[in-house]
Amino acid sequence: MAHGAKRLAEAVKGELSGECLCGAVRYTLADGFRLNPYACHCTDCQTRTGSAFSQHMLFRIDDLTVEGELDVAEYRQPSGAEASIFGCAKCKARIYAINDTREGFGSLRCGTLHNSNEVVPAAHIWVRSKQPWIALPRDAKTMDANPETAEEWVNLLGIAGQ
Ligand SMILES: [Zn+2]
Ligand SMILES: [Zn+2]
């Protein structure tokens, strides 16, 4: 197993925690079923974050405990899914999102994790619109767009800790 992959497996298993920028929102993600994290280079993520890409991890919503006040923004994803993104009501840091195509699951914004420095994307999606100055590792898994089915997501990312 490559060094990067081993580190990734350890970084995203077990109980995880994180918080927003101002500290008003803190969360715990209990040990449970989740997929390995990925980077999304779609233009929506670029615009929403004001950055070059965003980093997500799919988790079971029942595993998440949040303290502090969240606010919510609704939007439609490029795929047509209706999504809601939850963030700190004070500092507006985004914590996680849900959408109507994957009931029971959320998508964590990995930069809010306390150990975000250890979290390595298992794959990069929407590389079709990746910013040209970003050089991905030669062995990175990539997709031009996004997986369509739950099975394709699992095949691309793998289940965390396995
Ligand atoms: Zn905050
Ligand atoms: Zn995206």
UniProtKB/TrEMBL annotation:
InterPro entries: CENP-V/GFA, Mss4-like_sf
Coiled-coil regions listed: none
Protein name per Swiss-Prot or TrEMBL: GFA family protein
Database matches in PANTHER family: CENP-V_GFA DOMAIN-CONTAINING PROTEIN, GFA DOMAIN-CONTAINING PROTEIN
Positions of the CENP-V/GFA domain: 16-134
Gene3D superfamilies: glutathione-dependent formaldehyde- activating enzyme (gfa)
Pfam families, per the entry: GFA (PF04828)
Record keywords: Lyase, Metal-binding, Zinc
Annotated family: Belongs to the Gfa family.
Originating organism: Erythrobacter rubeus
